[in-house]
Design brief:
The complex is a heterodimer. Chain A is mainly α. Chain A has 16 helices and no strands. In chain A, helix 6 packs parallel to helix 9 and helix 8 crosses helix 12. Classes of the chains: A mainly alpha, B mainly alpha.
Chain lengths: 532, 288
């Protein structure tokens, strides 16, 4: 295509400076993805500590205070360090390629968005070594408990501020890129669904990350500057923190799943060799989910003592989300209906996503029911629910995307046998890990405790065995990625027979600069829009 | 390091972001240590702030040079516009968190503490005799008795100052479009002066509140919402006024044309944004 004649002038710079000073969306995308993988390992190691301690009842290996730091840090690292940067990395790499843009709209700011993150996480992780240890009151930082932490408190708050700055700048860049940098003819309703879901995600990020910044700023001033936002004696209320936090927190969980929907919506059509069923309804469903995410936050706090009218409103609003989500699942299944399907690793992970994310969705519906939630609240049922949507949801989709686009990034095919083994190993053990936690929760085991009553012993041991096996399996993923970067079967420009979209029209690996001049759009190459 | 590339300008390599990251990191590590009582914290904080300032001068300077040498196409201009619009939207949401806290406190917390609805037993057992009226420093009378700032004295005058500055910046814009540079600089100077006078009066008001009215950051929920909302707003006015000042200097140096003056517009948008936030503050913090 149009890029072939220009890219030889622009070889990638050499040395460390290439990465530190980069304004190139592909290099910055790679940095995001590698950083995310590193944080996935760090956060995973913390999960291993948790499962080790919970392997048997009684206190075995770690001090309860350290256990609490592990649950808190595991969440912060996985959410802000692993899942979100992975999606931003995929956005950086793929959005310009998918819409025919030469780079992100604001390339210097793109560099800054990434390079804040290593500093933020150095600061966050360093708190584990401070007097009084790291944050131990849960990632939600509820006062008054979180205000009682040691020297780490201010560092954690500022680390969250830095992560927020990074996210907001990244989101601004994504929106400006999508709205301003599309190749002529790439109308909004011809964009790949991954681009659409990221456009909506970026809007959510800009809308709610500042609210989180406000919430943690109030915590900081309550702790250090005498304010009384969350202190009833001064006319404040700790519950108000929960409202402000979850006004951020609920859109945040969709920030971590909408791009996953986008990835799966790219992969299933490619391996079913059929266009996506109900493209427009997918776009509208994503937008509906984003809108609803702003009016359901209090379902995280049904037991806190809200007026009945509030409980009912938030219950029904939450249940309504099942409608657009159901539209999506229906469309994925319908896309496969009578398709000429093959089951390479990306497709396996995408299918695993559809099945297992749906299980997480159903347990979410159970939790939405107020009287039922009174039983489930703060139990392992909640832990099982959000790990189904985040691990077999978000993380499986990221894995699917990584396998799908690795050939484009590296120019090599990964080892299909190992990939398939990685999928089946993960899919089996992740269920051994999280499914028993549903039963533990229903039986009444509370979350965030290092020790438990003996009747929970069997399921906890099963869950821990699943956890160790799943954790070890992810090292295989690291091995596969490194091996693919270093060599392997040469990938073609169109690495998958049924793959559509502009990213497959450039060579593999994608040259350092692509689409210096906008490409001519050819309808038969596009995944959506005309030509079908 | 950089050259135009096809139709859209993509800079090749930049040193400013990593300098900015080091600066921000130094700033917050210093601030956190400062809050934890370390004596060196304030110096580290200031060093961090200095690095961030250096970064901003360098980064904006480079962008201005590129802009003045005509490297930016219409499409680059649109990217900048979108960046600024969405940045302002993020700022709106930041203030929304604090306005939300104010509304929540007034509509729910205070009545509940006073025994309304499900708060009956809370009031009976914990805060008996607490009268739920706004303004309040809570049932424990935190920070002691205080008086509030009357809305229709200095705050009203400040409102007029900011509204006038919104007018003068628009006059400056018209002057720019007609390429009357002297008028442009004069109107901008008026805007900057109005901005700084506003900040000065806000500081006067704070001193008055602290020394004579007994109203402090520690005056319960009223003091918290009052000072955090007006404080963050004052900070934004200060930043906006500095931004206007730099635009004024650029105008005096002959930057901008009637067709291309995004830098001017961005700062004007920002100025209108702090103006609108002030109207919300005047209404909900001072009047009501």
């Amino acid at each position: 295509m149009s890029t072939a004649h220009t890219h030889e002038h622009h070889e990638a710079p050499k040395g460390l400076g290439r990465w530190v000073f980069s304004t190139n969306h592909k290099d910055i995308g790679t940095l995001y993805l590698l950083f995310s993988l590193l944080m996935f390992i760090v956060g995973g190691a913390m999960a291993m500590v948790i499962r080790l301690e919970l392997f048997q009842p009684g206190l075995q290996f770690v001090h309860p205070e350290f256990f609490n730091q592990m649950t808190t840090m595991h969440a912060l690292v996985m959410i802000f360090g692993a899942v979100m940067p992975a999606f931003v990395g995929l956005a950086n790499w793929m959005i310009p390629l998918m819409i025919g843009a030469p780079d992100m709209a604001l390339p210097r700011m793109n560099n800054w968005s990434f390079w804040i993150l290593p500093f933020a996480f150095a600061m966050l992780l360093s708190t584990l070594f401070m007097d009084g240890g790291g944050p131990a009151g849960g990632w939600t930082l509820y006062p008054p408990l979180s205000l009682q932490s040691g020297n780490s408190f201010a560092f954690v708050i500022f680390a969250i501020h830095l992560m927020g700055i990074s996210s907001i700048m990244g989101a601004i860049n994504v929106i400006a890129t999508i709205l301003n940098m599309r190749a002529p003819g790439m109308t909004l309703l011809r964009m790949p669904l991954f681009v659409w879901t990221w456009l909506i995600t970026a809007f959510l990020l800009i809308a709610v990350m500042p609210v989180l910044a406000g919430a943690v700023t109030m915590l900081l001033t309550d702790r250090f500057f005498d304010t009384s936002f969350f202190n009833a004696a001064g006319g404040g209320d700790p519950v108000m923190f929960q409202h402000i936090f979850w006004f951020f927190g609920h859109p945040e969980v969709y920030i971590m799943i909408l791009p996953a929907f986008g990835i799966v919506s790219e992969i299933i059509p490619a391996f079913a060799r059929k266009p996506l069923f109900g493209y427009a309804s997918m776009v509208y469903a994503s937008a509906s989910i984003a809108f609803l995410s702003f009016i359901v936050w209090a379902h995280h706090m049904f037991t806190v003592g809200m007026p009945l009218g509030g409980e009912l409103f938030f219950m029904y609003a939450t249940m309504v989300i099942a409608v657009p989500t159901g539209v999506k699942v229906f469309n994925w299944v319908s896309t496969m209906w009578r398709g000429a399907m093959t089951f390479e690793t990306p497709m396996l992970f995408a299918l695993g996503f559809v099945v297992l994310f749906t299980i997480g969705g159903f347990s979410g519906l159970m939790l939405a029911i107020v009287p039922a939630d009174f039983q489930y609240h703060d139990t392992y049922f909640v832990v099982a629910h959000f790990h189904y949507v985040l691990v077999t949801g978000a993380v499986f989709a990221i894995m699917a995307g990584a396998y799908y686009w690795l050939p484009k990034w590296t120019g090599h095919m990964y080892n299909e046998k190992l990939g398939k083994f990685h999928f089946w190993w993960s899919a089996i053990w992740v269920n051994v890990l999280f499914f028993p936690q549903h039963y533990l929760g229903l039986a009444g085991m509370p979350r965030r405790i290092p020790d438990y009553s003996v009747q929970f012993a069997d399921f906890n041991m099963i869950s821990s065995i699943g956890g160790f096996a799943f954790g070890v399996g992810q090292l295989l993923f690291v091995y596969i990625v490194i091996k693919t970067i270093r060599g392997g079967e040469k990938a073609e420009a169109r690495s998958w027979e049924g793959a559509k979209g502009l990213e497959w029209t450039v060579p593999s690996p994608a040259p350092h600069h692509t689409f210096d001049t906008p490409p001519e759009l050819d309808d038969s190459q596009l995944a959506h829009g005309g030509g079908h | 390091m950089s050259h135009a590339n096809g139709s859209y300008y993509v800079p090749h390599g930049t040193r400013w972001p990593i300098i900015g990251s080091v600066g921000l990191f130094t700033l917050v590590v210093g601030a956190a240590n400062w809050m934890n009582g370390s004596s060196s914290g304030q110096w580290v904080t200031m060093a961090g702030a200095a690095i961030v300032l250096f970064m901003m001068f360098g980064w904006f300077g480079e962008v201005i040079r590129e802009s003045e040498s005509g490297m930016y196409s219409k499409q680059v201009d649109t990217s900048f516009r979108m960046g600024m619009i969405w940045f302002i939207f993020s700022e709106v949401m930041f203030f929304a968190a604090f306005f939300g806290a104010l509304y929540y406190a007034r509509s729910f917390i205070v009545p509940w503490l006073g025994g309304e609805g499900t708060g009956a037993m809370t009031n009976e057992l914990l805060w008996q005799g607490y009268e739920p009226v706004w303004p309040t420093n809570g049932p424990a009378n935190l920070g002691g008795d205080f008086k509030t700032i009357p809305a229709f004295e200095l705050p009203l005058f400040n409102t007029l100052l900011l509204l006038t500055s919104g007018f003068t910046v628009t006059m400056a814009h018209w002057a720019l479009k007609k390429m009357q540079r002297r008028a442009l600089v004069a109107w901008l100077a008026a805007t900057v002066i109005l901005g700084f006078v506003f900040v000065y009066f806000q500081m006067e008001e704070y001193a008055h509140a602290y020394h004579e009215l007994g109203l402090t950051l520690g005056s319960g929920i009223y003091g918290s919402t009052f000072f955090m909302l007006t404080g963050f707003h004052g900070l934004h006015v200060t930043l906006g006024a500095i931004m206007l000042l730099i635009i004024m200097i650029r105008c005096a140096k002959g930057h901008f044309t009637p067709q291309e003056h995004f830098g001017f517009e961005a700062v004007a948008w920002y100025w209108h944004f702090v103006d609108v936030v002030w109207l919300g503050l005047f209404l909900f913090v001072y009047v009501l």
